[in-house]
Design a protein that fits this description.
374 residues; alpha/beta; GMP Synthetase, Chain A, domain 3; Rossmann fold; 2 domains; 8-stranded mixed sheet; 3-stranded mixed sheet; 13 helices; 22% strand; binds adenosine-5'-triphosphate; binds magnesium ion
Length: 374
């Protein structure tokens, strides 16, 4: 059973400062090596971004940092991902990858030592699905919203950006590996979607494989080197399923990718709302700020099997009020539907298999509302 307690941020940073950067002799946090710190229920993780020539030097540091995190109260799962950082090639300019465009570095955009976000090639619009709290249904919403966009005739991609617990392979019933062709990864296809997930590349059951430098570069490739479309066949919309997190920069990934807008998922419970507020504040702080496209209330009610009456298990109207407070649109309420969970468990998204169900209809309406802004 996973704990609901969030690890304490100050304690996490203090613990990471007790692990020493072999180059500068400072603690990891003070050395600025703790990127994208993610604190979720029972989990803590971050990216250790180092010079590509020094990944071997930092591998033991990564292990020590992971051990330090795992020893903290409230941390059941610790994950430190060692990645090779982009190298500055001239003042103010960063070369992201061989062959990719050079991107001017705006110092204001670079609040965490990260290169500015890059626009994905041949993708018209990127919508991220976020929440602060875990388990509120981001992945369920991402998958079904993507299917609803596809049902309306759009060309749709789904990027499962949850490196800690990828959902797309299971929720879409995919277990093959993407092919690497002409320097780019071809996304897998399912239910009319193009799909990419770290879960296709990294075996969750084998963390040692995940830790290898190949996995780190795979993560980078998942953002930068996926063939979502071509000049003559552009993707209309890419839905990005984000990992849970309440840190102010919850994942390096999020910063690397230019996002046009974010959809916040929340259950009606106050605790979930507080986290949704934090998540929306985080997107507002990004440079440039990422607009909140709206709030979706998930698990809004359960229909009494005998009478069909709505039973608001988690309270009523909370997400609607929260949307008003954020000045964001209230996009809709998704009921608790057993078929929605079953569809997720069986790799058969409800929107694709039962388009007439109440939840599928709501996803359709939300997709139409969002598509007005395309
Ligand atoms: N409206 C719903 N009705 C029934 N079950 C739901 C609903 N929304 C989500 N679930 C179920 O709740 C569980 C958590 O949902 P999901 O994995 O989508 O959440 P998440 O926010 O992506 O979680 P995480 O934070 O771990 O990424 C899953 O078993 C899913 O099938
Ligand atoms: Mg998820």
């Amino acid at each position: 059973m996973t704990t609901d307690i969030l690890p304490d941020r100050a304690a996490v940073l203090a613990a990471l400062n007790r692990v020493v950067d072999p180059r500068g002799g400072q603690g990891l946090a003070d050395a600025g090596l703790v990127q994208g710190l993610t604190l979720g229920a029972g989990r803590a993780g971050f990216m250790l971004e180092v010079d590509p020539a020094q990944t071997a030097l930092y591998a033991p540091v990564r292990d020590a940092a992971e051990k330090a995190l795992a020893a903290l109260p409230g941390v059941e799962k610790a994950q430190v991902v060692l990645t090779a950082a982009a190298q500055p090639v001239a003042p103010g300019v960063t070369r992201l990858r061989k062959g990719s465009a050079q991107v001017a570095m705006d110092p204001r955009a670079d609040t965490h030592g990260m290169p500015p976000a890059v626009r994905l090639e041949h993708v018209r619009r990127v919508i991220a699905v976020a929440s602060g709290k875990g388990g509120v249904g981001k992945s369920t919403v991402s998958v079904n919203l993507a299917c609803a966009f596809a049902a309306s005739g759009l060309k749709v991609g789904l990027l499962d950006a949850d490196i800690y617990g990828p959902s797309a392979p299971k929720m879409l019933g995919l277990d093959s590996q993407p092919e690497f062709v002409d320097g780019k990864l071809n996304p897998l296809r399912a239910w009319g979607l193009k799909v990419m997930s770290i879960g296709f590349i990294v075996d969750e059951a084998s963390p040692m494989i995940w830790r290898g430098p190949m996995a780190s570069s795979a993560l980078r490739q998942m953002i930068q080197d996926v063939r979502w479309g071509t000049a003559s066949d552009e993707l209309d919309v890419l839905v990005v399923d984000l990992p849970p997190g309440t840190g102010d920069v919850h994942l390096t990934l999020v910063q690397k990718l230019a996002v046009d807008g974010v959809v916040i998922v929340s259950t009606p419970q106050e605790i979930a709302l507080i986290d949704a507020r934090r998540a929306s504040a985080m997107f507002g702080k990004m440079n440039p700020p990422v607009p909140i496209l709206g709030v979706i209330e998930n698990m809004a009610w359960f229909a009494d099997p005998a009478t069909g009456a709505r039973i608001p298990i988690f309270g009523e109207g909370g997400a609607r009020r929260e949307a008003e407070r954020l000045g964001a649109a209230f996009l809709g309420e998704i009921p608790i539907e057993i078929a929605l969970r079953q569809g997720g468990d069986e790799g058969r998204p409800l929107v694709a298999t039962s388009p007439d169900s109440a939840a599928a209809q709501t996803f359709g309406a939300i997709a139409r509302e969002l598509a007005k802004g395309f």
